[in-house]
Every structure is written in structure tokens, then in C-alpha cells.
Design a protein that fits this description.
- The protein has one domain (2-176).
- The chain is 34% helix and 37% strand.
- The chain has one helix and ten strands; from the N terminus they run αββββββββββ.
- The chain has one helix at residues 2-61, and strands at residues 69-74, 80-84, 89-96, 107-109, 112-119, 122-130, 135-139, 145-149, 155-164, 170-176.
- The strands form two sheets. Strands 4-5-6-3-2-8 form a six-stranded antiparallel beta sheet, covered by helices on one side.
- The longest helix is centred in the N-terminal third of the chain and has 60 residues, at 2-61.
């Protein structure tokens, strides 16, 4: 009878040990896989954001004559989109675990300039579209800086062509509807 009880105890001890070993192995796999998964997710977000900036650029280039308006629906899941009316740029930035491009060097991807800066513990990736040569960007009629941060709902961005300014640049007004 004692032999039967000790065998039951041994089975339980073996079960607990095997379960602990399995948990340790799962933990080790996740500790190596999770950073790589996060890096892939960040790269996907940056690729989508580059396409978003190119889409906004195509909308701006097709604005045509004074009075034209376009509504652009933007979904920002991570990072932030900045409309810089002071320097006439649209900038998307994201803190990423991985490198998206060569650190410290501006890389051109069509109309978008990509810059990756190494910081402590992360990389700051900035996607910039510069309109300062031909356009004067404004937010709500003012040369101001507007930040659109991540949100669960889409932003509806209204872009209006308001003619030429005193320097001969096309005046584009941005607002959230």
C-alpha cells in the first residue's frame, strides 16, 4: 500500500517538474521572439505611414484651383502625425525598437524623407514631406504646429486650397472635421 502511495506522489512531482520545464521553455522562446515581433510590427506601421504620406502628397498635388477641398481619412494606430505650418512640412514620427533605415542619414523614398536616429533604448524614426518650396501650409488658418496622435478612431482631415499667398505659394489650409 505504501508503494502505491509513493508512486502517486512521484507522478505528481514529475507532472509539476515537466510543467515548470515547459513554462521555462515557453518563456525563453518568448523572450527572443517578442522583440523581433515588435520590430516587424513597427516596420509595418512605418511602411503604412510612408504610404499615408504619399497619399496625402498625391491629394495635395491634385488640389488644382482655388476653392478645391478634399477630405482625407487617417488612421493613426501608433506614433504621431505633425502638421507643421511654420516650416511647411508634414512629419510622422514613431519610437521603434528596430532600425528602419541607416541611422543618422536622410533617405529619400519618393516624396518622403526617412531619418532614423538612435536614442537610448529605442530608435526615433521620422518620415517627412517638405512642401516649403511650393506650398504654404496652415492649420485652422494659422501658421501653427498641430499634432495628431494615435487614436482608436480615424481623423478626418480637410485640406482646402485657398489660393496664392504674397510669395506666390499655394496656400493650403488643414483642419479636422
Amino acid at each position: 500500500m505504501k508503494r502505491l502511495i509513493s508512486k502517486k506522489g512521484q507522478v505528481w512531482i514529475e507532472t509539476v517538474i515537466y510543467t515548470l520545464i515547459a513554462f521555462v521553455l515557453i518563456g525563453l522562446v518568448l523572450s527572443f521572439a517578442r522583440p523581433k515581433i515588435e520590430e516587424i510590427q513597427d516596420n509595418t506601421i512605418l511602411q503604412q505611414s510612408t504610404e499615408m504620406l504619399k497619399y496625402i502628397d498625391s491629394i495635395i498635388l491634385s488640389m488644382g484651383v482655388t476653392g478645391n477641398q478634399r477630405v482625407v481619412e487617417l488612421q493613426i494606430k501608433e506614433g504621431e502625425l505633425n502638421i507643421d505650418g511654420e516650416t511647411d512640412k508634414i512629419i510622422f514620427s514613431l519610437e521603434s525598437k528596430g532600425l528602419y533605415s541607416e541611422p543618422g542619414k536622410n533617405i529619400s523614398d519618393g516624396s518622403v524623407t526617412v531619418l532614423t536616429e538612435q536614442k537610448t533604448g529605442f530608435n526615433l524614426v521620422t518620415l517627412t514631406t517638405d512642401y516649403s518650396r511650393n506650398y504654404n501650409l496652415r492649420y485652422n488658418g494659422n501658421d501653427e504646429f498641430k499634432i495628431l496622435s494615435k487614436a482608436s478612431t480615424s481623423y478626418k482631415l480637410l485640406i482646402s486650397n485657398e489660393g496664392k499667398d504674397s510669395n506666390g505659394k499655394t496656400l493650403l489650409n488643414f483642419s479636422i472635421t
